[in-house]
TrEMBL record:
Needed co-factor(s): FMN
Entry protein name: Ion-translocating oxidoreductase complex subunit G
Domain of life: Bacteria
Organism encoding this protein: Rivihabitans pingtungensis
Keywords: Cell inner membrane, Cell membrane, Electron transport, Flavoprotein, FMN, Membrane, Phosphoprotein, Translocase, Transmembrane, Transmembrane helix, Transport
GO CC annotation: plasma membrane
A Pfam family assignment: FMN_bind
Classification via SMART domains: FMN_bind
Family: Belongs to the RnfG family.
Record-level Gene Ontology MF annotations: electron transfer activity; FMN binding
Amino acid sequence: MNLDAIREKLGYQPVLLGVVALVVSGALALAATSTHDAIAAAEAADLRNSLSDVLPKGFADNDLVKDVVTLQYKDKPLTIYRARLGSALKGVVFQVSERGYSGEILVLMAVDVDGKMLGARVLKHTETPGLGDKIEIAKDKWILSFNGKSLGEPPADKWGVKKDGGVFDQFAGATITPRAVVKAVKGGMLFFSEHKAEILGG
C-alpha cells in the first residue's frame, strides 16, 4: 500500500485541519486568559478616574467601584457609586443619558446627600464637532454650570436652556445638544430625589 492510499484511508486532511484548529483555539484562549486581568484592571482604573472627575478633590476616600447599589432607571439597571469620607456617606455618582441631535449623550453626574450637584461630565456623544461638542469639558466650561445646582435652586421650571425660559446657556446653532444634557441631568436629579432612601441606605 503506498503513502497516498494510506493518507486517503486515514482521511489525514480533516485530521490535520482539526489539529491546526485545536492549536489555534488553544493559543487564542491562552492569550485571552493572560490579558483578561490587565484589561479588567485598566477598565477599573478608567472608571475610578471618571468617578473622581465629578467629585471635589478630597470629597471621598473610599473605593467607589466597590461601594455600589443597583436600581432600575428607565426600565434598565443603573449602578450607583457611593462616595464616603471615613464612614460618612457624602454623595453618589451615576450615569444618565438623553437623546441629542445626533444620538445618545451619556452623562456622568454626582450629587451630595442633600441633592446638590457636585459635578457632571459628558462621557460619550456623537454631536456635531465645533457646535455640539462644547458639552465636553475639554472644549468648553459649559458643563461646570451644573455645579452647586439643585432641584430647588434653580426652581424646577428653570431647569432648561435660556431659549426655553431656563437658566442654562445654549450654543449658537446647537440648542438641541445642551437642551438634552440639561434634561438628562434634571432627570438624574429627580431620580435621586425620588429614590434617596434606597440610594443612601441600600
